[in-house]
Amino acid sequence: MSVRVVARVRPLLKSERDLDVILRTGSSAPTDSKSRLSSAGDKTEKTDKKLAALRDRDNVVRIPNPKNEGEEYAFQFNGVYDAQVSQQELFDAEVAPTIKHLLNGFDVTIFAYGVTGTGKTHTMRGGKTLADRGVIPRLLSGVYRRSKKIEKDSEGETNVQVALSYYEIYNDKVYDLFEPPEKRTMAGLPLRDNGGKTVVCGLSEKPCTSLKEFEQLYDQANTNRSTSATKLNAHSSRSHAVLGVKVTITSPDKVRVSTASAIDLAGSEDNRRTENDKERMVESASINKSLFVLAQCVEAINKKQHRIPYRESKMTRILSLGQNNGLTVMILNLAPVRSYQLDTISSLNVANRTRKIEVREVENDPMFKGPARPAPRPSVAGVRQPLRALTASVNVNMPAPPKDPAEKDDSKPVKAFSVYSDKPQPKPTSQLRKPDAPKRTSMSNTASHLPTKATRQPLGAQSASHQADISAAKIEEMVERKVEAIMAQRAVSEQSKQSQINELNEQLQKRLEQLEQRIDGTEDARAEGLSYLLMAKQHQARGEDSSALRMYQLAAPHFPHNTKLAGKIATLKERVHSKVWEQNALSPKGRLGSMLSLKKEPSHTLGKRQAQDVDGDYVDRTGGFSSDEEVPRHQHKKRASAKLAQIEEDPEVLDSEDPSVSPRTLHLLSIINSRDVSQIKLLKGVGAKKAEALVDCLCEMDQPSDTDSGAFPESQYQVSSLAELSQLKGVGVKTVENMRQGVLA
Ligand SMILES: Nc1ncnc2c1ncn2[C@@H]1O[C@H](COP(=O)(O)OP(=O)(O)OP(=O)(O)O)[C@@H](O)[C@H]1O
After folding, report:
1. Where is the composition biased (Acidic residues) (predicted)?
2. Do 502 and 608 reside in the same domain of the chain?
3. Is residue 583 located within the same domain as residue 526?
């Protein structure tokens, strides 16, 4: 049976517009244009008929090709539910049928997959009202209801117990959600392989007897889950959450255990849109990486590849898609709007491939109760039994025993052959039908302990030599004993071999754990570095140089001696820097704003500033000012070239050789501030005309003297940074760069 994949399209959020809806489901018009979250509560009762109709229509999701709007991609699933479908309807159609299987001993896995903000948590956990409750509380409710029925039907002979475990995978580490966050260790809980299943070691398991108790436990545990506000979702899950519902059914003769796993995966994030900070970025990198590994696993299974990369992420190891037995339902959550288009297509692709994954629908083995069964002797089970003669057989070569005249003649004819069996005989003594005659008093006791003894005794041959009889019996007995001794010896050696194997396995397991821990440590760091690199590449591919630079810088500590990485960082820094200048120069607001406001402010000479620098009145390697009297000007400059200042002030972006304060820059600024046309015109890229215009511009910006009070003499406007220079009339970033390069430091 393959994984059941159903798609659920969420309604429009209040911030989204009907116009932006691009997804179509079934034979409907563009999805949900009429349904908004505000009206979601109004849609209450829907009949079974309607639900059946929902199931019957074509289960296709259609989305336009982003490169050619006229063309549509269509994806078929096992079920498609649009925004009008209520929590109850989705549950009834997709999850309720699995409860029966769960209580029949099958494991069930239900997981929600999709981009951030598409409704996974809403689907799995849901809201607080009865109608809004999601899959998980409804599942528990169904389990309790069915358990009660089983107990009632069996008149109390069968008992059903439910126990819960709940954990999250946050930054590829597993944490118990039933434990408060303070109790967490850095490494999280380790995973182990146990009989083909991945288990979390040290996870707490809470017996839970009622729905009410479940709600308390679940709500409390959810407060321990890592969630945060991102730009795309005010309550974004920053981890994958796995709820395990273990059901133990104890009937008079057996115990059956099965588990339902309800998984709310974290959503993939496009960090162009999230505007995540560093912490969110780290989370996001981990989420995206695990989802990427999941997609790789799905692809590898589809392509029937030998190696499925389950172990590359804890989430995929736990989910074990295609390796887990039982039933698996994937709920693909989708947002109907254009801003999600690329992410939606990629989710649809993954889900489409998941649909083809086959899972074995195997029920868990029950454990039988009752008195201990006679276990086969250790290690003998696999050993071929020595041939044993069936006791009913007789040897045709032996003379027939004299018949008792009283005996009826309806006895079966004597078989003309001996029948031997190599099957173990579970109850040999009772099955053994001793020959009626002759009775050998001397050996009778011994013989009764030797059930497997072949009856080679000539029937009714009492006249034969007693000596020969005894010796034959003795020989048989000796053979029997010898065989048993050999068997016992073998059993012992098998046992010790087994214990050696167990010991070896334990040692191997320990070694594996140690290795895993070691690898986890180094791999974690490496993986983190790699995910930064991956994100940096993605940003760079999209032309987001500053984000790419930031990611490369975050990756750098993980690859300390990587010259290529260092080179990339340097190149990007350079590029980011010049881009910012360009932006400032090109921005009409920035240019005009700076020209206007600069005029209003008192000016200061470069000489004065340098003096202040020497006195240590301000510390500013970006060309800004920090002395009290300079504050307004400094603030103004920041406004005028906000982006530049932001980048210049960011120590991670700006290296110590900031060109704005290098000797070359200072020299260039002093030439400009000298207002000497003959000198300025000699600068690279500046002719006489440009030099004159530049000086005119500087004069225009001079502050007139405060004639009323006579407090200040006319002060000359001085250019204090390259950014400022690039904003002057007729001067652009390129000109400034040319001027600077032409100046000898
Ligand atoms: N079917 C729905 N009906 C009503 N509201 C919905 C539905 N699906 C999603 N929403 C709303 O959409 C918003 C985002 O949903 P949710 O938090 O469940 O997304 P998510 O996929 O879990 O996101 P993340 O991956 O970031 O955790 C929430 O405000 C939620 O209430």
Report:
1. 647-658
2. no
3. no
